[in-house]
From TrEMBL:
The lineage of its organism: Bacteria, Bacillati, Actinomycetota, Actinomycetes, Kitasatosporales. This is EAL domain-containing protein. Signal peptide: none annotated. Transmembrane segments: none annotated. CDD domains: EAL, GGDEF, PAS. Residues 241-293 form the PAC domain. SMART domains: EAL, GGDEF, PAC, PAS.
Length: 727
């Protein structure tokens, strides 16, 4: 047999391992070792392995294809049959190798849990495709053999008219030695002859087969057209037909066959007999059913998986919106499941998931209710019917009640809690993906509210979450594209009213949402870790601008830059700050780094060490939003700060006269305390002249706010408005 030439190496997609071709070769080696011993081929094992390399490459390319097409795997199954890999063990070995090694050797070089789950799902569908292609190719090969046998049988019967003895011998040899079941019946359906293969297929009891009539072998699963084609054949209107047909054996079990029935005519062409060829496909059918089950059910819990649930959800919500059909979906995520895995191990976590799955199944027993596991500790429950709003609420209550009972695991009792997002509505308005996305967002809303509860989906909350997600995804590219810019708000010396410095405030010029303030994206940058490169960029821009001001105005202007908690923990904080100062030529004393009070509550010496090193270099450290963190005032002495930045909540009562006496006393006390510790006091949020005058009288050192100037471009740093921002 000629070994097909290997195809040229496919262009690798970004994200694929650089040694993908070597991985494909190793995968082909494992594959050949698994199935070569059961392969009836004239190739050597090395030649057979070379033959598998293009097939392995085909599976790898299908695994990574942008438009996933599991039909590609069917060709691989057909190729196995083409090289005589027809033994069932060859198919089982192939499926085992693909399941265990395809993603391992041919998957992405690095992937997160969600992407890995997508590749595993593709791998499962490729296995199904291989089995389907294998079965189809084997069936086609068998059909060709059947047709050859049928032609041989017809030839033998025809030759019997000329040489009865010789033809009888040949026919009997074919009839008895065939690997498929053969039976002959008259046109009334009475069975006249059967071979041993057919007898064994029906359980080996001759009385159960021979002498019976074909009409007695009906089965509830017979396709409607089978008996119509049978009638056409015995009437001489059809020469043959093929069908998949089940039969009952004498013990009640079901025999599934690929059935081919042909009409035998006499020398004058009149219909005389019917010849049936049967291939036993029971094991192959059971294999396909098992593969279908494994592809659509969770291996750990036995619940329907994401694939099957999507099918059922699509069926439930895919009807027309005006037929009154409704649905309700509960999206459950266990609270604190990661702690169970981390403390007791993944084996204990798996047992916990099995117990949770059992409890969920006991909650969804009504008509139209189904439970599935989407992955990890995420489950969904679906209910349908005319009054799903009440039904889905009752279902969520039953689920939380079922989870409330302690689960005994590893000798201890665990209390399992869960957060549920509920989506309910009429069918025909949303796609399954939209429904699950809304339920997922709502579930996280329930978790953020404390967990162990359920929340109903809200369109506005969904829109806000989607916007946040979009901003999070756009953040890295925005920094690369230069969409961020810095505005500066003047810091005013309260003694003489001059501009003492400025605070750098980052903005995002978003192409869709316009200019966004830091409250819209800084928390997102904190969660994604982008705050570190973004914070360094802001520091570089602010320090460069401060140096430009010094050149233009001749005097030192201090620049204040905010530090996030994540930046405080970053090991490169000190080195990055020193490098920025050295590159710009700005003196350390002209830089003030603002740290929120809440970020330093309970800070240990390890966290304070970088700030102490920066303070030792001459960089001022300001304690921002002072008074909001409920910190111990005695801790001020151990913090390396030189400035207290008083939160605006303490000074709002001074915007009008007469000032709130309580606020005056509080600010007066904080200023006295700060000055006794040799700390300067900066006030933010100054919006009126009366407020500024009162704060000046109380001894505050510097101030900023809309009374002086709003944040703006760097060339407006000295343009003070000195007008009330509030009536």
């Amino acid at each position: 047999m000629r070994v097909p030439a290997q195809t040229a190496q496919a262009t690798q997609s970004p994200g694929l391992p650089a040694d993908l071709e070597d991985r494909i070769g190793r995968f082909a080696t494992i594959w050949s070792r698994a199935i070569f011993p059961v392969t009836a081929t004239s190739l050597t094992r090395v030649e057979f392995e070379r033959h598998l390399v293009p097939l392995a490459r085909t599976l790898s390319e299908a695994l990574h294809a942008r438009a996933f097409d599991p039909a590609v795997a069917q060709r691989v199954g057909g190729e196995l049959v083409a090289v005589h890999c027809t033994d069932p063990d060859a198919l089982a070995g192939t499926l085992g190798v693909v399941d265990s090694y395809l993603v391992l050797y041919c998957g992405p070089g690095s992937a997160g849990p969600e992407e890995t789950e997508q590749y595993r799902a593709r791998c499962a569908r490729l296995q199904h495709g291989i089995a389907a292609g294998f079965a189809r190719a084997l069936r086609e090969r068998t059909l060709r053999e059947q047709e050859a046998i049928a032609r041989s049988a017809l030839t033998a019967r025809s030759d019997a008219q000329e040489a009865l003895h010789a033809s009888e011998e040949r026919f009997r040899a074919v009839f008895e030695g065939a690997a498929v079941g053969i039976g002959i019946a008259d046109l009334e359906g009475n069975i006249l002859e059967i071979n041993d293969t057919l007898l064994k297929m029906f359980g080996g009891l001759e009385g159960h087969v021979r002498g019976r009539n074909v009409s007695e072998w009906g089965h509830p699963d017979d396709a409607p057209h089978i008996w119509r084609m049978y009638g056409e054949l015995v009437r001489g209107e059809r020469e043959h037909y093929r069908a998949e047909k089940p039969y009952y054996r004498h013990d009640g079990t079901v025999l599934w066959t690929n059935l081919t029935v042909s009409l035998l005519r006499d020398a004058e062409g009149r219909p005389q007999y019917q010849l049936a060829l049967m291939e036993d496909t029971t094991e192959r059918r059971l294999l396909n059913l098992r593969l279908r089950y494994e592809a659509t059910h969770d291996a750990l819990t036995g619940l329907p998986n994401r694939t099957l649930f999507f099918e059922r959800l699509e069926k439930a919500i895919g009807g027309p919106a005006d037929d009154g059909a409704r649905f309700g979906l509960c999206y459950l995520d266990l609270d604190g499941f990661k702690a169970v895995n981390d403390s007791l191990g993944h084996s204990a976590g798996d047992r916990l998931l099995v117990e949770v799955a059992d409890r969920l199944q006991s909650c969804a027993t009504g008509p139209g209710e189904v439970v599935a596991r989407l992955g990890g500790d995420e489950f969904v429950a679906l209910t349908t019917g005319p009054d799903t709003e009440q039904k889905v609420t009752d279902l969520a209550v039953r689920i939380l009640s079922a989870l409330a009972a302690p689960i005994r695991l590893e000798g201890r009792e665990l209390i399992v809690r869960g957060s549920i997002g509920i989506v309910e509505g009429p069918a025909g308005e949303r796609t399954p993906a939209e429904v699950l996305r809304s339920a997922d967002i709502t579930m996280y809303r329930a978790k953020a509210a404390g967990g162990n509860r359920f929340e109903f989906a809200d369109a506005e909350a969904d829109a806000r979450a989607i916007t946040r997600h979009g901003l999070t995804n756009a953040l890295p590219g925005a920094l690369e594209r230069g969409e961020f810019f810095v505005e500066y708000q003047p810091l005013v010396d309260m003694n003489d009213g001059s501009v003492y410095g400025a605070e750098a405030l980052v903005r995002w010029s978003h192409p869709q949402y316009g200019v966004l303030g830091p409250d819209r994206f800084i928390p997102l940058a904190e969660r994604t870790g982008l705050i570190v490169p973004l914070g360094r960029w802001v520091l570089e821009e602010a320090v460069r601008q401060a140096r430009n001001w010094q050149r233009e105005h001749g005097g030192p202007l201090r620049i204040n830059v905010n530090l996030s908690p994540t930046q405080l923990h970053h090991p490169g904080l000190v080195a990055d700050t020193v490098a920025v100062l050295e590159n710009s030529g700005l003196e350390p004393g002209a830089l003030c780094l603002e740290v929120t009070e809440s970020a330093l509550i309970g800070a240990d010496d390890e966290l304070l060490e970088p700030l102490r090193r920066l303070a030792a270099l001459g960089v001022d450290i300001a304690l921002d939003d002072f008074g909001t963190g409920y910190s111990n005032l005695a801790n001020l002495r151990r913090l390396p700060v030189s400035v207290l930045k008083l939160d605006r909540s303490f000074t709002q009562g001074m915007q009008q006269q007469p000032a709130d006496p309580v606020d005056v006393k509080i600010v007066e006390g904080i200023v006295a305390l700060a000055h006794s510790l040799e700390l300067a006091v900066t006030v933010e949020g100054v919006e009126t002249g009366a407020q500024a005058a009162q704060l000046r009288a109380l001894g505050c050192d510097t101030a900023q706010g809309w009374y002086y100037a709003r944040p703006g471009a760097p060339d407006r740093i000295h343009a003070l408005s000195l007008s009330d921002a509030t009536p």
